[in-house]
Amino acid sequence: MKLVAYQKGKNENDRVGVLIDSERLADVEDLSQQFGEKVLPANPSDFYEDAAHHIEVLQQVLQKSSGYETLSLQDVRLGMPLGKAKKVICVGINYQEHIHEMKSQVPDFPVLFAKFDNAIIGPEDDIYYPSITEKLDYEVELTVVIGKTASKVKKEDAFDYIAGYTLANDTSARDLQKRTPQWLQGKSLDHTTPVGPWVVTKEEVENPHELNICSYVNGEVRQSSNTEHLIFDIPFLVNFISEIMTLEPGDIILTGTPDGVGFAMNPSGLLQDGDRVKLEIEGIGVMENQVKKV
Ligand code: MG
Predict the structure, then answer these.
(1) 150 plus 48 within the same structural domain
(2) Which of 47, 83, 253, 288 could form a disulfide with 144 if both were Cys (CB 3.0 to 4.6 A apart)?
């Protein structure tokens, strides 16, 4: 299943929808009211509060559903699929070639940093380019959505705690990121990190470690790799992070970006006002955002 957050009209609250095909969605609360034994939350944050269970209920509802109302994707605006971000945990330098281009070293442990909700935007929103930075960059990342409370999870059990996957652009202000050893100030600027366009539930992704992962700026290929090159893979990360902190449903993990970032290009390929950044991960989706100076 592909789950979206959508708005029917301006100023309406985001609601959870499920894609019926590549062009249409159905409202999850309405579907569950008509065909289920339990009404599912309309609000994305409430839905992901108990993600694994709600996804299971929705799968049963869909099997019983027929003749229901659908909406065209063209008639709605998509929001950040999980609503408000909870914990946003990012993994730095997790692809070998990216470590090389950033003149960094392979770490002994995953490099973790955080983003906050102020940075997170929806798949159709503009990426803000604030005047505090002159070096804004893109990073396509496969993003894991946690489905169940996860504490001290073994690697072999990691997928039991995952609800699905989405895409994120870990937009980074390289000048701010690099002026201190901690990267946070370059990684959590307001309105910079699109997530979406939907959450693909895990049963649709046979192997998340063999997906082509690409980014484009104004149509030019910038990053082109495969998730097989992740240094610390998804079970490793879920085990490692859940040993440190409890992961909750709706938390997300950005797993790192491959080589090809603008900062490492010669001449520089950093973002400019008006650029269009497109991210694509095989089997997950495509997300395109415009850069806007603010
Ligand atoms: Mg990153």
Answers:
(1) no
(2) 253
Among 44, 16, 285, which residue's Cα sits nearest to residue 168?
Answer: 285
Q: Which residues pair with 78 in a beta bridge?
A: 6
- Tokens at residue 290, please? 């415009």
User: Could you give the C-alpha distances from 237 to 59, 143, 167, 226, 244, in angstroms and in order?
Assistant: 27, 12, 17, 17, 11
Which residues of the chain are under the pLDDT cut of 50?
A: none
Is 94:231 a contact under the CB 8 Å cutoff? Answer: yes
Helix (H) or strand (E) run with residue 113 in it: strand 111-115
Q: Give the global pTM.
A: 0.97
CATH number of the CATH domain containing 171: 3.90.850.10
Same domain, 41 and 9: yes
List, in sequence order, every residue forming a beta bridge with 123; answer none if it has no partner.
none
CA distance 253 to 251: 7
Radius of gyration of the chain (CA): 19
Residues 13 and 142 in one domain: no
Whether residues 195 and 255 share a domain: the answer is: yes
Residue ranges with CB less than 5 Å from ion ligand 1: 139, 170, 257
Could you tell me the distance, in angstroms and rounded to a whole number, from the CA of residue 257 to the centre of ligand 1?
Answer: 5
Measure 143 CA to ligand 1 centroid, in angstroms: 10
Task: Specify the number of domains making up the chain.
Answer: 2
CA of 61 to the centre of ligand 1 (A): 37
Q: Give me the residue label for tokens 């159709």.
A: 124
Q: What is the pLDDT of residues 156-206, one digit of tens each?
A: 999 999 999 999 999 999 999 999 999 999 999 999 999 999 999 999 999
Q: What is the residue range of 204's domain?
A: 88-293
